[in-house]
Amino acid sequence: MRYVIAILAAVFLLPGLADAQAPGRTPWGDPDLQGIWTNRTTTPLERPIELGERAVLSDEERAALDAEADAARDAPPPPGRTGGYNDFWLDRGVRTSQTSLIVDPPDGRYPAKTERVRESDEAFAAMRDGTRFDTWEDLNLYDRCITRGMPGAMIPGFYNHNYQILQTPDHVVIFVEMIHDARIIPLDGRPHAPARIGQWMGDSRGRWEGDTLVVETTNLTPKGDERVRYLVHAGSDEAKVVERFTRVAADRIDYSFTVTDPATYARSWTAEIPMVPLPGGLFEYACHEGNYGLENILAGARAAELEAAGSTQQ
Question: Which one is predicted more confidently, 153 or 117?
Answer without folding.
Answer: 153
